[in-house]
Amino acid sequence: MYEQHPARLVRTVTGPLAPERVGGPVLAHEHLALDLAHGGDPTAVLGARHRQAVTAELAALREEFGLSLVVELTCRGMGRDVRALARVAQESGVAVVAGTGWYYERFHPPETAGAGVGELTGELVREIEDGIGGTGVVPGVIGEAGSHDDAPGAAEVRTLTAAAHAARATGLSVATHAQLGRGGPAQLELLTGAGLAPHRVSIGHQDLLDDPGVHRELAAAGAYVAFDTVGKESYRSDESRLKLLLALLDAGHADRTLLSCDISRHGYLTSEGGTGYGHLFRSFLPRLRAAGADDDLIDLLTRRNPLRFLTGGRDVPGSTDATRTHQDGEL
Fold first, then answer.
1. Over the chain, what is the mean pLDDT?
2. Euclidean distance between CA atoms 27 and 54, whole angstroms
3. Element at 161 (helix H, strand E)
4. Which of the 8 DSSP states describes residue 56?
5. Domain annotation covers residue 321
């Protein structure tokens, strides 16, 4: 029914952006404005009172590390606020990509309950083509499209299938939420079974899953493997994350790896004593460098990979070797 149309530009909240203009790193999975309090956690909020702190953090990271782009994966049912995203982007000088789709079932809006795959697909396509809620802001990615177990439930099967169909129709890619890293293979099977190419899929939260075999399986199938909760030590230590990442890189899958911090509550902001959006740059990447990563590998992981994911596989200038995984076998 749908044809695949790979994107040529990154669709940001302030307009289209050529990948070649993204000269610095990209955070592949973050939240800048969300509200999950209705799910039972009043701390899982980044609201209007946190906007200045969020903006200041991004602006500081742009100055210190050249942060160029944030992929913001707050979708339907998660308190998405694209007007706030546009303000943060304009005031921080960091481009922002907004998401669409549906999170896992606990956070599905009531209207999804009686809707079939065709209706859900149509809703996503209209939003992608016409903009979100009359704002004129268009999504640049479908995500974080969620499931919460080893296999998606019936409602999640419908929303994930709709995500795959909408991705095929519009050229956007799909970033998933795999609860605690579980269920990634089932998500990928569902999405590819609906006709979406695996390189248009990023499987989320894989750094929370202590299973290098699954990571290799996903990457070998062509999907991106997201190590996107870096710094969340209450879930898994960064020491363990680094070992899992090195195992994936040693297996030859650097070109299928994404990195981010998934800041999803105000307590993670540096202004409130948290690790902040910059933990990846200030703490984790130096440890990766100490393990043998060179500048080209860091650029691959933090810039070229997320840009290729967002644009459906388009090559990004600036690489000495797009398939290179490490320098002189050090990793």
1. 93
2. 14
3. helix 154-170
4. H
5. no
* Structural Rg of the chain based on CA atoms: 18
Task: Give the mean model confidence (pLDDT) for residues 146-172.
Answer: 97
CA distance 98 to 82: 7
In a domain, 67, yes or no: yes
What is the token pair recorded at 73?
A: 């994966």
Q: Give tens-digit pLDDT for 180-192.
A: 999 999 999 999 9
Sign of CA dihedral 195, 155, 139, 27: negative
| 190-242: pLDDT as tens digits | 999 999 999 999 999 999 999 999 999 999 999 999 999 999 999 999 999 99
Strand partners, 97: 71
Q: Which domain holds residue 290?
A: 25-311
Q: What is the pLDDT of residues 102-133, one digit of tens each?
A: 999 999 999 899 899 999 999 999 999 999 99
253 appears as a binding residue in the annotation:
no
d(CA 324, CA 254): 8
Does the annotation place 215 within a ligand binding site? no
Dihedral in degrees, nearest 10, Cα atoms 215, 213, 239, 306: -10
Per-residue pLDDT at 35:
97
Q: How many CB atoms lie within 10 A of CB 19?
A: 23
Helical (H) or strand (E) element with 53: helix 51-65
Q: What is the DSSP letter of 300?
A: I
- The response to whether 31 counts as a known ligand-binding position is yes
Antiparallel, parallel or unpaired: β 201-203 and 174-178: parallel
User: What is the count of structural domains for the chain?
Assistant: 1
Residue 318 within any structural domain of the chain: no
Judge contact between 62 and 93, C-beta under 8 A. Answer: yes
**Which CATH number characterizes residue 258's domain?**
3.20.20.140
pTM reported for the whole predicted model: 0.93
Is 211 annotated for ligand binding? Answer: no
**How far, in Å, CA of 64 to CA of 94, rounded?**
12
Domain for residue 180, yes or no?
yes
Cβ contact 305:224 at 8 Å: yes
